[in-house]
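TASK: fixed-backbone design
INPUT:
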């Protein structure tokens, strides 16, 4: 959490770094953060919604249905097959039998882990695995990684910005552009376009 009036920036994770991190976390049996990061990136959910997910929401379905805590709007998300495979594989490795429990349980097994605790641990994870990012390491990286991946795969088209606006449920296209750092890139590009 930032202080009132303090501006913080969080960027996205490079896609290859993201894939490598997920592999390493699973290999090192850090299943909770492996799933948290992968689910966050593949769904684009805010951390408040991620932490409320239960195993049963991924049982026998290709879609995840949530009501977003911040917007109070329902959202239907197509579950990426790679994410579904990862969830099923880790569920077996963790020997989860009660699928009604939260996926991201605290150490006492009573409720989901805390958002601030997640951010503290993300910083440790990124340091341990030597992943460099611009700006702060926080849960906002998940959504921004999804956004930047979609933009890149679609050649930064206006259509992809409109889609991301809908996915993120932002109030305007401008907000989505600012969120993903597009507005700043566009402004800086103006200076590069000037020639003698």
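OUTPUT:
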């Amino acid at each position: 959490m930032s202080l009132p009036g303090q501006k913080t920036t969080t960027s996205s994770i490079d896609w290859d770094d993201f894939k490598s991190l997920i592999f390493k976390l699973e290999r090192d049996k850090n299943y909770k953060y492996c799933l948290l990061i992968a689910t966050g990136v593949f769904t684009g959910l805010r951390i408040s919604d991620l932490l409320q997910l239960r195993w049963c929401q991924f049982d026998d379905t290709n879609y995840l249905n949530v009501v977003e805590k911040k917007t109070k709007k329902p959202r239907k998300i197509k579950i990426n097959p790679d994410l579904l495979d990862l969830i099923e594989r880790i569920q077996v490795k963790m020997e989860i039998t009660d699928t009604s429990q939260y996926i991201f349980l605290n150490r006492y097994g009573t409720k989901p882990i805390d958002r601030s605790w997640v951010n503290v641990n993300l910083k440790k994870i990124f340091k341990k695995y030597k992943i460099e990012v611009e700006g702060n390491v926080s849960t906002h990286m998940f959504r921004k990684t999804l956004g930047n991946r979609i933009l890149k795969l679609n050649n930064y088209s206006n259509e992809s910005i409109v889609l991301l606006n809908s996915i993120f449920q932002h109030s305007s296209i401008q907000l989505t552009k600012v969120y993903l750092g597009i507005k700043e890139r566009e402004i800086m590009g103006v200076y590069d376009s000037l020639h003698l």
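COMMENT: The chain has one domain: 15-153.
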